[in-house]
Amino acid sequence: xxxxxxxxxxxxxxxxxxxxxxxxxxxxxxxxxxxxxxxxxxxxxxxxxxxxxxxxxxxxxxxxxxxxxxxxxxxxxxxxxxxxxxxxxxxxxxxxxxxxxxxxxxxxxxxxxxxxxxxxxxxxxxxxxxxxxxxxxxxxxxxxxxxxxxxxxxxxxxxxxxxxxxxxxxxxxxxxxxxxxxxxxxxxxxxxxxxxxxxxxxxxxxxxxxxxxxxxxxxxxxxxxxxxxxxxxxxxx
Length: 237
Known about the structure:
Strand order of the largest sheet: 3-5-6-8-7
Number of strands: 9
Number of domains: 1
Oligomer: single chain
Radius of gyration: 20 Å
Order of helices and strands: HEHEEEHEHHEHEEE
Distance between the termini: 57 Å
Strand content: 5-15%
Largest sheet: 5 strands, mixed
Helix content: 25-40%
Structural class: alpha/beta
């Protein structure tokens, strides 16, 4: 009986604290996932293994375009979640693979446009509060490929006009129409989606079944991070 009362008291105390302080913290416990928060720890790992280095995409993928939606209110959260809208990062091997995809598309007069890449873990926690559906927003208990620097949200544009190819839905469309296997679409849309998926998979990415724009590196062995992206611009020496 004492244990039951103690457990109930602890839960009520936590709930009361969150209510009284107006805290935006959820009850997701970080004991279930290891999240690197200190740049010094990331630096140590990246110096020991260069594949863990985070690189700014425009430094390694020439001509790539950005429309970083979470740096603006133009997203499903309707709020600015990032401080900066002109930088974004991926792990070194992932960025190199993306560069190869960009090069192939360039031969067709096309280019990639990035909506999101690295995402701090705390942003995933915030996203998970209103959208409790891990088909569209990663469960913070597990973390996201974005938090590991190995996932990217993107589309294809025409280089000459910067016009997006028609993919049938916009970014962050949480409906069946955005699923990879949804076929009730025009031939043009199906061909455009197929082009994006084919090129990305050719260079080592895997497609998320519920989002035509989301691709992740086929090697999940990277740490979750909650580090300000600007810090990745610091030299590792």
